[in-house]
Amino acid sequence: MFNKRVKVKDLLASEPTGQEVTVMGWVRGFRNNQFIAVNDGSTNNNIQVVVELGMLDEETQKRITQSASIKAVGTLIASQGKGQKVEVKATSIEILGDCDAEKYPLQLKNRPSLEYLREIAHLRFRTNTFGAVFRVRHALAFAVHKFFNEKGFVYMHTPIVTASDAEGAGEMFRVTTLPFDNPPRNEDGTINFKEDFFGRSTNLTVSGQLEGELAATAFSEIYTFGPTFRAENSNTARHLAEFWMIEPEMAFYDIEDNQNLAEEFIKYLIRHVMEHNREDLEFLTQRLAEEEKQLPQDKRSEMGLIEKLEFVINNDFERITYTEAIDILLQSPAYKKKKFQYEVKWGIDMQSEHERYLVEKHFKKPVIVTGYPKEIKAFYMRQNDDGKTVAAMDILAPGIGEIVGGSQREERLDKLTQRMEEMHIPAEELWWYLDTRRYGTVPHAGFGLGFERMVLFVTGMTNIRDVIAFPRTPKNAEF
Ligand code: 4AD
Ligand code: MG
């Protein structure tokens, strides 16, 4: 029976009164044949288990190697040594699982690089960095539900397999049971999807928004939080082929209400982690500072991680229009010195270099950009009276770029169908979506927060592959 185990985190916070305790975990270190550092993932801190000299036979002693799993029973006493308040004076040690030190691929003392750790992603949780990152990721996920639950939003599970391309970008993974070598064909040679599992062509969802809108037009306020899939061939530090997204959708909201909610939401998430994961944030702050020491001065962050997070929760996000953003870029020293690789003019889909200039160099804080040209945005966004722009909003964050994308939705049936026609989106396939505009249509709005980008922002990690357990990227689906 294992259930007498006390978590290391709880042990470290206990008063040592000589009580008997059971610890289980993985060995992080073994010093002088006497001091075993044990970790169970509840915190980055280890509990020191002290074995009296002579207590263990030589055979057992040799088996206490890094990452062997052990069970220790003993008494919790005030620690004699520096660095910890309490320690366990062992009365018995049992090896649960050996770990061959020669073969074990994760040698902590050599400070493995993040790149190497990606190759052994099945073991990287056992490092302090990934321990902290994934506890913070957990806390953020929990806070997402807490935030919306407190506001009375209904959590909707939207489908993973769908026949629609919500974003209209065509970056979908097909879902099929048809044989690859000899699929059934129509007379004209095209593939006959009527014979496919669902009797039609289907794909993995790129967004739960369209279904979310259906629910919002009954519950008023809903959110989704699930995996989304994009077959875009972007091998960057910000893109995943499988990522998690939170998509709230609210009836009776306009674009300003939408911005307010998104800003409040992001600040709430950060505040939650600041309150509940202080130790991990302190570790990550130090990690980032050390990593940045290797960079030239001008590439280092001006603020430490915790300082940056405090700044974000204590200051208003900047709010500007797309047109203002383009003007700022055109006036910028970077533009004048031809530092931008991509063209800048009204109508462009801003590249990451432009977004980062705005947030990192110009405003030095998160920025909400609204009123994008309709040509570069999805069909469902509400058209502004100028005939050129839509009620879109992107939130850009320092070090990340776009973290949120959203909009007020086009609730006017005639305008929506007209835009769909212009963009060659077949109305017949979205008959159910259009029905919400036919039967009691309402002004409504919503946004999508990329969960991994949020985790990047809060942890100060710089590659999105390091904040999701098993990243899916082009040419990579190991584990
Ligand atoms: O801007 P996007 O494409 O918006 C939508 O999908 C809308 N349906 C959201 C809505 O209004 N309900 O994606 C939203 C966010 C982006 O801002 C970004 O943070 C994240 O999702 N994202 C990605 N994250 C990781 N890897 C990718 N390939 C991503 N693509 C988008
Ligand atoms: Mg977007």
TrEMBL record:
It catalyses: tRNA(Asn) + L-asparagine + ATP = L-asparaginyl-tRNA(Asn) + AMP + diphosphate + H(+). GO terms for biological process: asparaginyl-tRNA aminoacylation. The keyword Coiled coil applies. InterPro entries: Aa-tRNA-synt_II, aa-tRNA-synth_II, aa-tRNA-synth_II/BPL/LPL, Asn-tRNA-ligase, Asp/Asn-tRNA-synth_IIb, NA-bd_OB-fold, NA-bd_OB_tRNA. Keywords: Aminoacyl-tRNA synthetase, ATP-binding, Coiled coil, Cytoplasm, Ligase, Nucleotide-binding, Protein biosynthesis. GO terms for molecular function: asparagine-tRNA ligase activity; ATP binding; nucleic acid binding. Its main location: cytoplasm. It is an enzyme of class 6 (ligase). Belongs to the class-II aminoacyl-tRNA synthetase family. Gene3D superfamilies: Bira Bifunctional Protein, Domain 2, Nucleic acid-binding proteins. It is found in: Cytoplasm. Its EC number is 6.1.1.22. Homodimer. Residues 134-471 form the Aminoacyl-transfer RNA synthetases class-II family profile domain. This is Asparagine--tRNA ligase. CDD domains: AsxRS_core (cd00776), EcAsnRS_like_N (cd04318). It comes from Niastella yeongjuensis. Residues 274-301 form a coiled coil. One of its GO terms (cellular component) is cytoplasm.
